[in-house]
Amino acid sequence: MFRRRTALSVSATAALLAATPLLAACSGDAHPGAAAIVDGKRITVSQLQAKVKDVRAAQAKSPQGGQLIMNTGRLSLATLNGMIFDEVLARGAKDAGVTITRADIQKWRARAEKQAGGAERLKAMWLQQGVAPDEVDAMVRNQLLLDGLAKHLGADRGKPQGQQKLVQALAKTSRSMGIDVNPRFGKWDDQQVILGETKDPWITTEHVKQQV
User: 123-126: long-range contacts (C-beta < 8 A, 24 or more apart)?
Assistant: First the structure.
């Protein structure tokens, strides 16, 4: 689930998948208006739609807008996948005592921007993976939480055994959170910590410098 990366790699909770329309909940659903329920907390369809629209608006402004939109066709499912995974990761990190400061985020982002060739270049790279410019700090935070959780577990993310150890820990957290996804969006897989309709919640760019 988590691919090999360096300290300056870029990860995002989005998948580059084939096109599909945004699905909406209806009044007949068990949880009207909810795309998912995570630990009793509602992720509403309107919240999901807002995130998708934010990405699409940013992509539309890009010279490569058409290609970006085509490459992130199933953005609604990938985005919901990321929103659920964010909650699982946050809980897992909290239970492990992992904390991330604003200074940590700024330091990591500054290094990544330098490696990428500037702040705008880094934003453009993330946008290719369905992450809006105003969500970059949140993605950096998640990357640092993953690193901190892996360290707490003694798991080397660069090795299959370490990756599996991290997945198992997050799977345990996921099961404890009673995740219930609106069937219109698919089914959450606690074992793999992923929304079944997507492929991978973390698209990794191995080396930022290779993208410039």
Answer: 124/62, 125/10, 125/205, 125/208, 125/211, 126/10, 126/12
Residue 3, pLDDT score: 33
Residues ≥6 apart with Cβ < 8 Å to 151: none
Claim: this prediction has a pTM higher than 0.85: no
Q: Which residue has the higher pLDDT, 23 or 140?
A: 140
Tokens 């897992």 locate to 92
- Whose structure tokens read 């699409």? 56
Tokens representing 162 are 């370490």
Exposed, middle or buried: residue 126 (CB in 10 Å: 0-12, 13-18, 19+)?
A: buried
pLDDT of residue 5: 33
- State both tokens at 44: 């509403």
Please give the Cα distance from 26 to 182 (Å, whole number): 10
